[in-house]
């Protein structure tokens, strides 16, 4: 049960990352790219902290 919830959470996070990457491919806005990199760093820090 716990693992299932964790997998759904991971899937949601990866979807958000994919969306951010997709949006940034078509964005020339430097501020947006910086925001994306900051978000990606947060995701990288959060993922290992999730209970298995």
TrEMBL record:
InterPro entries reported in the protein's UniProt record: Dilute_dom
PROSITE patterns to which the protein is assigned, alphabetical: DILUTE (PS51126)
Domain Dilute: 1-52
Domain of life: Bacteria
Name of this protein: Dilute domain-containing protein
């Amino acid at each position: 049960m716990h693992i299932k919830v964790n997998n759904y959470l991971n899937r949601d996070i990866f979807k958000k990352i994919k969306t951010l990457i997709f949006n940034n491919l078509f964005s020339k806005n430097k501020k947006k790219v910086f925001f994306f990199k900051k978000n990606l760093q947060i995701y990288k820090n959060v993922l290992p902290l999730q209970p298995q």
